[in-house]
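Figure 6 in text form: structure in, sequence out.
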């Protein structure tokens, strides 16, 4: 194919790329732009090709994107950067790939994702502060700073309406000058009283793009302009009863009209601002009310139980009931002061008078003149003359709030279903009857996180509500209950079922989840994995039954999802073993039960010792020798790998130093790092500290990682590996070929060595497919200037084949098994003087 035709085909391919894509030569001149890039820049390709990027876009000079481009060009390594680009008021992700001819750059607008992340995290922190009853000023300042972070260039001001509703008071404006904030504090609201005063007066948004010329600012523009403020958009903040609580204003130091997304960003902050203000006011009212109740009770009465009439009372009773004083004295009090529970016939006032107790406390109902009822909490005293002196307070609101809080603490806010607390109580009641088995079904939605990521959390909540309704409908008429115990998990408890009946119920519940879900503009198809446990075979307390049903559900997911799995005796034994082992493992380091064994590594060409791989062993006092395949997954599940990994690193460096002190040279020690360690910040600092502590040359340490370490937060992993490389250590990719085996990782990450997994070595050289895979990996790695090591070498034939194929290093029992440190030291040759 001729070169112009090849170039045309090449450009046609990149025209179909949805991201913006450009190419630059080594002189920073455009050589290609796809249609998406042209649309983003608002320029045609003909205008830009051959032009210098920083001449055409001088505003980018010194910005993160220029620095990343120059770094990629200088180091000839791919770079990835996310940064805010002020001219477009947007966030962009750039992926930069250098070559000998220049750079290729992909652009993606990630503004909405960045804003959503910032908003969700920021609002969560603010809501936590509100729930903790932190000062209102602190919450408002956090709201203002969150909005400013999400909208660079915006200067946020939150003003509060005073008690008489006629003046605005300073709430928070962390980026505005103090002098200006003082000038605005106490200003009267009204039409043409600046943006905020007018917005509060009209109850609607006021946008002023030019303070210098707008009539609303005629009497207020001098202090604004003196501080460089040239535009102000103000939006009223409403309370739950549609009353104006204050204003949310955004200032700018340039004249400008708002874009639609900027107004939307403001609107998203109004709700949480209203919540913060109302929560503070409610808390203040509750504090005042509590103080008042402590100092002076609301209702004072003197009653005569014999006549059933009120003798005396204060005005609070009239205000509460709506009755006139004459009505209260003429009516028998039993007509409006009623027993708390309608079925009770006893009069608590009469009971108090007869029993002769000095103090009597009770609650009853008060029926008001309009027919409504209030709950009153009484403290009464029966005097020797037969009269009852009583003080009461209205606890209706308190009871309502307590009931709502009790409901909220025990019910899922999204679906309204009971949560774990109520589920546990219901299970305990069911288990009291030992004659009938209690069944627990854990329903785990498969890959539900993808729903939230694809259609958003609001739509995801709609899905959960629909599924909750379906599950409840499917259980109608049965002795059962459904609860939501986790983000994507429901639990059903049932009694009166046989084993076949329980399995049939599980299949029915799985089927109702599988029915299509209609959510706004989406039609979703979901599946569920269901785990089953039952008493008494799988336990006789709620925790055991739930834990074992969840284990069965996880087993169903491992078996392919969208299926039902019943808990088995084997699973029970496995869970109990994991529990025992986990408890012992937590103290293994403190008790000195961990040790390292070392498996030698040899050059393939001449079988000369090149180093060791440090392998963790656990000799438990209670359990004896525990295989790594048993305890490593448990350590990962319990989050213990960072602590254990730090111990392994320190022990390996200490031993490496000991061998150096004995005169051994020209070898390395490889240490395995788990995905948890690689993903956690500060790994490079830990490694550097260990090297320095033991005086070990960085080039003698080899860090082995697996492909699973790359699966989350690729950018963080890139940075961590770059920091490790900067120390001078070597990086090896372990078990290559068994994970995702993405070639992009080999290009993006600074890997020095690939280790062929033993799965491809085991059948060598007889298996032609394994032979082809091994040769391919070796050839590819060498082209990428990487070394290749083979694990699990068990025979001479395997060693000879791999050496002939160009493999650089061999490791396996044929050459030497993993041994303790004393035996490992014998692998060295004589020390050269």
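Output sequence:
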């Amino acid at each position: 194919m001729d070169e112009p035709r090849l170039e045309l085909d090449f450009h046609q391919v990149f025209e179909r790329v949805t991201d913006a894509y450009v190419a630059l030569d080594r002189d920073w001149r455009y050589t290609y732009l796809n249609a998406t890039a042209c649309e983003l820049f608002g320029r045609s390709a003909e205008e830009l090709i051959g032009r210098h990027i920083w001449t055409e876009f001088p505003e980018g000079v010194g910005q993160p994107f220029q620095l990343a481009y120059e770094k990629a060009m200088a180091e000839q390594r791919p770079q990835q950067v996310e940064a805010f680009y002020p001219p477009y008021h947007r966030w962009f992700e750039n992926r930069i790939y250098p070559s000998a001819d220049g750079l290729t750059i992909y652009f993606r607008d990630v503004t909405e994702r960045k804003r959503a992340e910032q908003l969700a995290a920021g609002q969560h922190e603010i809501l936590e502060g509100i729930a903790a009853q932190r000062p209102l000023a602190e919450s408002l300042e956090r709201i203002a700073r969150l909005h400013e972070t999400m909208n660079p260039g915006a200067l946020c001001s939150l003003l509060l309406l005073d008690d008489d509703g006629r003046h605005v008071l300073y709430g928070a404006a962390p980026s505005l000058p103090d002098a200006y904030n003082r000038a605005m504090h106490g200003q009267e609201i009204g039409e043409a009283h600046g943006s905020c005063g007018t917005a509060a007066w009209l109850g609607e948004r006021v946008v002023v793009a030019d303070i210098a010329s707008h009539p609303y600012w005629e009497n207020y523009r001098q202090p604004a302009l003196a501080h460089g403020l040239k535009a102000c958009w103000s939006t009223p903040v409403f309370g739950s009863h549609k009353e104006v609580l204050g204003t949310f204003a955004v200032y700018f130091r340039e004249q400008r009209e708002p874009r639609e997304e900027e107004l939307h960003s403001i609107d998203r902050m109004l709700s949480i601002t209203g919540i913060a203000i109302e929560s503070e006011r409610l808390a203040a009212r509750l504090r005042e009310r509590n103080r008042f109740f402590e100092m002076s009770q609301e209702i004072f009465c003197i009653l005569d139980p014999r006549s059933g009439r009120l003798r005396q009372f204060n005005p609070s009773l009239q205000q509460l009931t709506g009755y006139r004083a004459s009505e209260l004295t003429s009516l028998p009090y039993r007509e409006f002061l009623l027993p708390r529970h309608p079925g009770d016939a006893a009069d608590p006032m009469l009971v108090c008078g007869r029993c002769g107790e000095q103090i009597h406390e009770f609650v009853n109902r008060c029926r008001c003149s309009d027919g409504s009822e209030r709950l009153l909490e009484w403290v009464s005293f029966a005097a020797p003359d037969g009269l009852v002196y009583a003080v009461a307070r209205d606890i209706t609101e308190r009871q309502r709030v307590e009931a709502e809080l009790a409901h909220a603490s025990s019910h899922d806010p999204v679906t309204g279903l009971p949560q774990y607390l109520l589920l546990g109580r219901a299970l305990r009641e069911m288990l009291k009857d030992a004659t009938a088995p209690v069944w627990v079904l854990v329903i785990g939605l498969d890959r539900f996180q993808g729903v939230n990521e694809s259609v958003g959390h609001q739509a995801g909540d709609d899905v959960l509500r629909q599924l909750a309704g379906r599950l409840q409908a499917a259980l109608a008429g049965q002795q059962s209950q459904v609860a939501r115990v986790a983000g994507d998990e429901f639990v059903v408890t049932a009694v009166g079922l046989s084993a076949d009946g329980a399995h049939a119920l599980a299949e029915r519940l799985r089927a109702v989840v599988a029915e299509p879900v209609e959510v706004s503009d989406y039609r979703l198809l979901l599946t569920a994995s269901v785990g089953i446990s039952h008493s008494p075979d799988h336990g006789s307390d709620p925790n055991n039954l739930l834990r074992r049903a969840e284990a069965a559900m996880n087993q169903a997911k491992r078996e392919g999802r969208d299926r039902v799995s019943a808990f088995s005796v084997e699973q029970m034994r496995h869970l109990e073993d994991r529990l025992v082992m986990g408890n012992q493992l937590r103290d293994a380091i403190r008790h000195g039960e961990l040790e390292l064994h070392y498996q030698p590594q040899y050059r393939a060409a001449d079988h000369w010792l090149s180093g060791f791989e440090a392998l963790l062993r656990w000799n438990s006092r209670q359990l004896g020798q525990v295989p790594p395949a048993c305890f490593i997954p448990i350590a990962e599940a319990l989050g213990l790998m960072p602590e254990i990994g730090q111990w392994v690193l320190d022990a390996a460096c200490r031993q490496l130093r000991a061998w150096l002190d004995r005169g051994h040279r020209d070898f390395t020690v490889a240490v395995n790092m788990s995905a948890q360690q690689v993903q956690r910040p500060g790994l490079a600092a830990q490694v550097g500290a260990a090297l320095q502590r033991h005086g070990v040359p960085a080039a003698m340490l080899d860090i082995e990682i697996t492909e699973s370490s790359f699966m989350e937060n690729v950018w963080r992993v890139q940075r961590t590996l770059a920091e490790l490389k900067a120390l001078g250590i070597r990086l090896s990719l372990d078990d290559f070929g068994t994970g995702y085996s993405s070639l992009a990782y080999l290009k993006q990450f600074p890997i020095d060595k690939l280790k062929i997994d033993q799965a491809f070595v085991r059948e060598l050289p007889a298996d032609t497919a394994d032979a082809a895979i091994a040769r391919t990996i070796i050839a590819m790695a060498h082209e990428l200037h990487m070394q290749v090591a083979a694990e699990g070498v068990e025979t001479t034939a395997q060693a000879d084949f791999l050496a002939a194929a160009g493999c650089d290093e061999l490791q396996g029992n044929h050459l030497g098994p993993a041994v303790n440190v004393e035996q490992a030291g014998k692998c060295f040759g004589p020390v050269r003087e």
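Caption detail: The longest strand covers residues 609-620.
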